[in-house]
Specification:
By secondary structure, this protein is mainly α. Helices cover 92% and strands 0% of the residues. The N and C termini lie far apart (89 Å).
């Protein structure tokens, strides 16, 4: 009876550890995606500003 309880406890600890690692990976991936989206938006804004500056030369 004690062996069954020990095996169950080990499985619970194993699955708990895997769950923690998966949550950490999701958290890190979420931060990576947020940083990436900020860079993409920044690039788009810079390109738009450059196009506006190019148009400015035609209206002087």
């Amino acid at each position: 009876m004690d062996d069954n309880a020990q095996a169950s406890a080990e499985f619970i600890l194993l699955f708990g550890g895997i769950f923690v690692v998966v949550l950490m990976a999701i958290y890190m991936y979420n931060n990576y995606i947020n940083d990436l989206s900020g860079q993409i938006q920044s690039k788009e804004v810079n390109e738009f500003n450059n196009q506006l500056m190019n148009l400015k030369t035609y209206f002087k």
